[in-house]
Amino acid sequence: MLTNYIRAAMRRAQYEILPDDSTFYGEIPGFDGVWANADTLEGCREELEEVLEEWILLRVSKHLPLPTVDGIELTIKEVA
Model-level pTM? Predict the structure, then answer.
């Protein structure tokens, strides 16, 4: 389920080439603070996925909600 969630979120990613230094910038709409910048598009994608994974772990550790992506919901259920 986590892998499917990450893949679905990455399909929403948007990229652009920055005019100042011709590096690639990527972000995922709806995932505030998840962005990356790298010299190549592939490097930007890899960095963006790492940032997304860390963002997910941080939100889970703080019991913060995660956006639903393509009908996929990540929810943490309390354990007795």
Answer: 0.91
